[in-house]
Structures are given as structure tokens and as C-alpha cells.
Design goal:
By secondary structure, this protein is α/β, with parallel strands linked by helices. It has 7 helices and 13 strands. The longest helix has 26 residues. About 40% of the residues are buried.
Length: about 280
């Protein structure tokens, strides 16, 4: 299957494109965001990487032919989980938070929580493809990101916000001028996952408190999440506040049990895959 068949996209306002993997039918299917700038273009998250994302972007002319863009496309992972980081190796420039650099550089498929089944891939990307052989390919980041870094696209800037909880290196990218938040898996319009190996509830609460304050300060109008549909500031406030309210002792106890089971299952799965 060609890259042009594997992906599909929508053009949104203000130089933003929403890309998805057509034949990955799962709640884990991540949103891929492409942002055009006057001097630098950025792709936020890269999906599974089963087909060439750069090839798709170029074949569809999503970057145009503006000679003012001096730098290669920069691919940023909001975190290194497999559904977001699988295609990072396809790019010349790669950025992730410093807490997850080693996991990506070492191809650590435990920390990337690689968990994919054949039934989620409804059309094989290549003859004989099998989910059990899928691995996140190692890549050494060229951009090591941390809180407060500003990614300059020329006519717009994205500020890195370290928002751990879902994973230890989870980030959001905030376009302050346009009041847009590219939130990765820190928050999306669904159940927020805090039971993975490197999840931490106390960190997640702090991150949600930051989000609530940002909404109260009217710093966010629109959220471009890591999964599902976009939403506005009122929904963001409710999602973040609801997580804080629910993260009590009972939630922590049940989450601890689920986290232990998930860690064992991931260890076993990735051990088999390595054989």
C-alpha cells in the first residue's frame, strides 16, 4: 500500500492540517498535526510509521513551494508512546522531551508501550505484515525539548509545556498568539490514561491544574488533541477539573493494580516480539 493510500488529511484554518492513518481503526489512532510556518514547518506526532509520512506530505503538496522555508520539516513527539512516535525515524529533525530521549534513542518498546493487534489494522500496509513484528524504530532526537522552549516557525511560535502524568515526558505545544493548544495525550475528549508504566497520578493532577489556570487566564480557545476531535476551552476546563476531582484514594488504589497488570503484559509482549 502506498503512503498516499494509507493517510488522509483535512485542511483546517491558519495553516494547520489534520492527518490520520486511514486503516488503523482503534481508539489508539493518534491525530497527526502539520503546521506551516513562514520559515519552519512542524509535524506534531507521527502515528505508527507503517508508511512514509514525509512521502504523503510531499505528494499532497501540503508544504507548498515557498522558498522562504529554510529548514527541513521538524517532527515533534508529544511523548514516545508507539501510536505517536512510530514514524519519528522517518524525519531528519526530531524533537522529544528530555525525559524520553533515551527511550526513543534505544528503541525501548516497553516505555513506548508498544501494543498493536492485527485486528486494529484493517488493510495490511504491506504483504505479509503482522502486528506481532511491529516495533518502534530507534532514532536519536536532534532537538531535546524542555519546559519553556520556543519553536520558532517564523510567523508563529510554539511554546513547550512539560505536562507529565500520562507519561514522564508528555508535552503540550502552545501557540499563544492563536490561543491553540496541541495537547498530545495530556488531555483529549475521552478517558485520560494514568495507569501505564511511567504514568504518575500526582504529576497528572499538577498538569491538569496548569490547564485549568490557562483556561481561566483565557490563554486557550481551541485544543488540538492527540486523539478524537478538537474541542474548546470550556470542554478543556471540564476535562481537567473532572480528572482532579476523581483522582482520590480509591482511584489511586485501583490504578495501582491496573498499572501492575499492564506493566507485566507489556513486558511479556515485548519480550516475545524481541525473540
Amino acid at each position: 500500500m502506498s503512503a498516499t493510500d494509507w493517510y488522509a488529511h483535512k485542511s483546517l484554518e491558519n495553516g494547520v492540517f489534520w492527518i490520520q492513518e486511514r486503516f488503523y481503526e482503534s481508539g489508539n489512532r493518534a491525530n497527526i498535526w502539520l503546521i506551516r510556518g513562514s520559515h519552519q514547518d512542524v509535524v506534531i506526532d507521527t502515528g505508527l510509521g507503517l508508511r512514509s509520512l514525509p512521502e504523503y506530505i510531499n505528494s499532497k503538496g501540503l508544504l507548498g513551494d515557498d522558498s522562504k522555508r529554510k529548514n527541513p520539516l521538524l517532527a515533534i513527539g508529544t511523548h514516545v508512546h508507539f501510536d505517536h512516535s512510530g514514524g519519528l525515524h522517518q524525519f531528519q529533525q526530531v524533537g522529544v522531551h528530555k525525559a524520553e530521549v533515551d527511550a526513543l534513542a534505544n528503541g525501548d518498546n516497553f516505555e513506548t508501550v508498544t501494543w498493536l493487534s492485527d485486528r486494529e489494522i484493517v488493510e495490511d500496509p504491506a504483504p505479509g505484515w503482522r502486528a506481532r513484528r511491529y516495533r518502534v524504530k530507534a532514532v536519536t532526537p536532534t532537538h531535546i525539548l524542555q519546559e519553556g522552549d520556543v519553536i520558532n516557525l517564523g510567523d508563529r511560535q510554539l511554546t513547550v509545556l512539560h505536562m507529565p502524568g500520562h507519561s514522564r515526558g508528555s508535552i503540550c505545544l502552545h501557540d499563544k498568539e492563536n490561543k491553540m493548544l496541541f495537547s498530545g495525550d495530556v488531555v483529549y475528549d475521552g478517558s485520560m490514561i494514568d495507569w501505564l508504566p511511567y504514568s504518575r497520578i500526582s504529576d497528572y493532577i499538577h498538569s491538569c491544574e496548569r490547564l485549568v489556570k490557562m483556561v481561566d487566564k483565557e490563554e486557550i480557545d481551541q485544543v488540538m488533541p492527540g486523539h478524537y476531535n478538537t474541542f474548546g476551552s470550556k470542554r478543556l476546563h471540564w476535562l481537567a477539573s473532572n480528572y482532579i476531582a476523581r483522582a482520590g484514594a480509591c482511584h489511586r488504589a485501583s490504578t495501582c493494580l491496573v498499572k501492575s497488570i499492564a506493566s507485566l503484559a507489556l513486558r511479556a509482549s515485548n519480550s516475545r516480539s524481541a525473540c
